[in-house]
Design brief:
This is TetR family transcriptional regulator. The protein is mostly helical and about 200 residues long. The chain has ten helices and no strands.
Amino acid sequence: MPSLETEKTRALRADARRNRDRVLRTAQRLFAERGLAVSLDEIARHAGVGPGTVHRHFPTKEALYLAVVIDQLEQLVAEAKALAAADDPEALFTQLTRMTAMGAENATVKSALMAAEFDLRTVAADVAAELTDQVAHLLARAQAAGAVRADVTVDEVMALVAGTFAAIRHAGAESDPERSAHLARLVLDGLRVRG
């Protein structure tokens, strides 16, 4: 039977996890809405936690926005796994649309990561590789079903996603979900088999 002290430690850990998650969600929203000028103290206030809580989990703003991006990649991996469980050759397009939408919505964070010279394939190698593996699985299934061109590789698909971010940014469509989705469809339609 667990001791009272063990139960208290578990409760504290669960509370710390909830606080960290609350800070991540709040930071994601505020970075997307207002850019990276938002201070850690302001994020704490909006998350309903003390500044010390934010600083304990994320000692710098760079650490926080990197954590936001890694968290989003982990969400995309989970979504790709769920899509892989369904027998739908269009699942690849669903996943790529989600990826481009998330990227467009968080262009500020991506720009900051580039400016800070963070390469996600290096600093978040495991989750970046896992996302690529999930996309590769969806791609292979779509190709086997004849929904996607046979001459496309996963590296090319990932390059198209990155190119879509650039197109959305070039068009100034980051804050216009309909327009950014339209641009993404234009790019991703090039993957489809033409009859």
